[in-house]
Specification:
This protein has helices spanning 8-24, 28-37, 47-66, 71-82, 88-92, 99-112, 116-120, 125-132, 139-150, 159-170, 174-177, 186-212, 223-241; strands spanning 151-152, 155-156. The protein is mainly alpha-helical and 243 residues long.
Length: 243
C-alpha cells in the first residue's frame, strides 16, 4: 500500500514548511551563512535555529508587502531576519568552531552585509536603548525584534505565548539589566515594550491594508494570527499557480 496523504493540520503544516523552504532558496547567501558558517544543520541538532530564521524571513516579507516598505527596507529586513541567529551555536558552543571555521563564517556574513542595527535589535542591549530613548528607536528595529519574538517554528504566536521558550535564555539577565531598566525585571520590560510596539504596528497595518482593500488584523493582539492567515493565503496562491 502507498503512504497515506497527510490530512488536516498535518497537511497545512507540511504546506507551510514547503513554502518557507522555497523562500529560503531565494536567499542562498543567507542559507550558506546559516548552514556552512553557523553550522546550524540537522546532523548537529541545530536545524531548528535555522528554521526559525527562515520563518522570520517570511514574516519580514509579509510585513514588507503589507506596510509598503521600500525595496531597500524590505531587503534589509528580510535578509537580516534570515541570519538573525546565525551565530547561535558559535555563542553557545565555541569549541565547535576552529579559527578557520570562524574566518569562513565571517566571510560568508560579509557577503550578505546584514544591517548591523537590525541585527542588534534582537539582543538584550537593545532593550536598554528602548528604555532610555524610546521615541528615537527606528520603526524597522522594533519590527525586527517583534518578528523574532513572535516567530515559533512555522507559526506566529503572541510574545507572551512564546515566553516559556525564551525564559531559559533570559532568566539570568535581571542582575545585569534590571538596574539599567529602572529597576524593572528584564522580562517585565520586554513584555511592556512588545505591547507598546504592537499597538503602533496595528495602527500602521490597519491603515495600509484597508487602503488596499485587504484583510487587516482585527486588533493588536490579532497580529500573530493575521500573520498565520497571510502565510496560509500565500501557500494557497502558490499551490494554485503550480497546478
Amino acid at each position: 500500500m502507498g503512504e497515506e496523504a497527510p490530512s488536516g493540520s498535518n497537511a497545512e503544516k507540511l504546506a507551510r514548511t514547503k513554502y518557507i523552504s522555497a523562500t529560503a532558496f531565494t536567499l542562498l547567501p543567507e542559507m550558506r551563512t546559516l548552514f556552512r558558517g553557523g553550522k546550524l544543520t540537522s546532523e548537529s541538532g541545530w536545524r531548528n535555529v535555522a528554521e526559525h530564521c527562515f520563518a522570520s524571513a517570511v514574516a519580514a516579507d509579509i510585513f514588507t508587502d503589507a506596510l509598503n516598505l521600500t525595496a531597500e527596507e524590505g531587503r534589509a529586513l528580510t535578509s537580516t531576519s534570515a541570519v538573525s541567529d546565525w551565530n547561535k551555536r558559535l555563542e553557545k558552543r565555541p569549541g565547535d568552531f576552529s579559527n578557520e571555521d570562524k574566518a569562513i563564517a565571517q566571510e560568508l556574513l560579509s557577503q550578505i552585509a546584514p544591517d548591523k542595527k537590525l541585527l542588534a535589535a534582537t539582543h538584550p542591549e537593545f532593550f536598554v536603548r528602548a528604555y532610555e530613548d524610546p521615541q528615537n528607536i527606528p520603526f524597522l528595529e522594533n519590527l525586527m525584534l517583534y518578528i523574532d519574538n513572535t516567530t515559533d517554528e512555522s507559526n506566529w504566536v503572541s510574545f507572551r505565548e512564546r515566553l516559556p521558550k525564551v525564559m531559559n535564555r533570559w532568566k539570568d539577565l535581571d542582575e545585569t539589566y534590571s538596574p539599567r531598566l529602572g529597576g524593572k525585571k528584564f522580562v517585565e520590560f520586554a513584555i511592556e515594550h512588545d505591547a507598546s510596539f504592537q499597538e503602533e504596528l496595528y495602527v500602521r497595518l490597519k491603515a495600509a491594508l484597508e487602503a488596499k482593500g485587504r484583510e487587516a488584523p482585527t486588533s493588536p493582539d490579532d497580529i500573530p494570527a493575521w500573520l498565520n492567515r497571510e502565510l496560509d493565503r500565500r501557500v494557497k496562491e502558490a499551490t494554485r499557480s503550480s497546478t
